[in-house]
Amino acid sequence: MEQQKKKKIPERQCLGCNEHKPKKELLRVVRSPEATDGTGGVVSLDFTGKKNGRGAYICRDVKCLKKARKSRRLDTSLGCEIPEAVYDAMEAELAACAGKNDKTV
Question: Fewest CB within 10 angstroms: 22, 48, 59, 82, which?
């Protein structure tokens, strides 16, 4: 009568579409720890999910990043103002990554 324990799959909420999905399906946006001079850390995409810093999650879709950008949900979640140039760079990086994944399938 041993019951096999079901392994819990960690879920996170996408800041663009507000859907709860398994953590591995989402992409982490991370703000690195603040520098010693008091300036905010660098905001970047974390494809491995292991970078140090404050993180937030979005789907691996440019549409979700654009929704989060429009509503400023990433700014609120990461606790800092994200410049438009950083958003543009993240969109380009995400589009390039999505294009690379489409070619390998």
Answer: 48
